[in-house]
């Protein structure tokens, strides 16, 4: 039997893969040895005729063949054991041939019948019935006397009379019944074998396809990771090289605006001021690129020490208020005075909140308001676990929550998780109203998480957005274990 299965390329692809079953078909693969043993046992119980089933290679697959009393006596004699061994070997090697079956006599007067086991035109085994006695046997045969002259003839005659007798047609009927039943067993076994083989082949093919896809994905992943590393290196190099001349541009524009090289006309001063302002904007963009590349490469470190959030936010307030006045946006700071020590880098925390406030001001129209609130809160989860209320006094459960609230257009709910991705813009069109590289919020998230905290976005009512930063106290294990994420490992070189 040959089973074909189409290759992954389909009918128009490569030639179909062929699963050959016939070339390796064996009797042992088609039958259950225990079930075949039960079948042989039932034949012996019904007819008293020993049964043995051999494979094409001569191996015993199953059988039920208790030793006759005459055979047991013969095997007590040395010459009898040799003669019996030679007879058994000859019977096992007997080929039924094309005739269908063959009779092999035993020197004791008994007989063996050998029947072929054919399946789908191929010979895959033999059934041996016997030894049994033909009905005509009455006396001790001359062949036994010649082979075993020392044998006790009366005892041989007595035990030989106990051997089951069967006519040739009876043996034929027994064999026909046995082979028909065996054919059904082999058909059922062949069906299960084909199913199992096809299943194994299908699993192997699926595993092969999956391995190929995994290899391609791994290659694509390594390539993307390498490109990401090259991008980070490129940004860092270019940004560093741009920062040096840009600093000179800003410095010289400041000197020109202050009149150090002579008095400027109003129009000239306006041009110089524009150069100075745009230079500062470009410097902020370059600084953001440098910070991102340092975060991705793992070269940025946090100089953490015990600090309070209150002085950090006051510094932020003094920094952003001049910009807010220029933009026509009101910035209000509502800071709680209650103490809560943080284990953090004040400079990086200042960068976090300047980015958040600057982002809020950028999206708040003139006349709008940006509010910064800070509160010291207790960890609600620990309060639930301690019903006695002692958790309220535990400093390790405290945290600082800073909320930056604006009255701008707000952020759609579907976009809130994406705005923290590097270079992501809610409005990415070329005609967008607000500029920027989309790096500020990505840097904010990485720095906040580096302090063991979290940052999220809530909807404001009736409009605007609320950025919520939660920073654990210095006694919180999360703050003590936190650090900036490690750099990406180099791409895999395994095949």
Write structural notes for this entry.
- With 495 residues, the chain is an alpha+beta fold.
- Among the domains are: 31-166, Beta-Lactamase (2-Layer Sandwich); 307-428 and 435-481, 2-Layer Sandwich (Heat Shock Protein 90), CATH 3.30.565.10.
- Helix content is 47%, strand content 18%.
- It has helices at 27-30, 33-47, 69-74, 78-92, 142-147, 153-160, 168-257, 266-297, 309-327, 346-362, 380-385, 440-450, 477-481, and strands at 2-5, 17-20, 51-55, 60-64, 102-105, 111-119, 122-132, 305-307, 330-335, 342-344, 369-378, 398-406, 454-459, 465-472.
- A hairpin with a 2-residue loop joins strand 6 and strand 7.
- The longest helix is centred in the middle third of the chain and has 90 residues, at 168-257.
- Mean pLDDT is 82; it is low at 1-20, 381-395, 428-432 and 491-495.
Helix-strand blueprint:
Elements: E1 2-5, E2 17-20, H1 27-30, H2 33-47, E3 51-55, E4 60-64, H3 69-74, H4 78-92, E5 102-105, E6 111-119, E7 122-132, H5 142-147, H6 153-160, H7 168-257, H8 266-297, E8 305-307, H9 309-327, E9 330-335, E10 342-344, H10 346-362, E11 369-378, H11 380-385, E12 398-406, H12 440-450, E13 454-459, E14 465-472, H13 477-481
Parallel strand pairs: 9-11
Antiparallel strand pairs: 1-2, 3-4, 3-7, 5-6, 6-7, 8-10, 11-12, 12-14, 13-14
Helix pairs in contact: 2-7, 7-8, 8-12, 9-10, 10-12
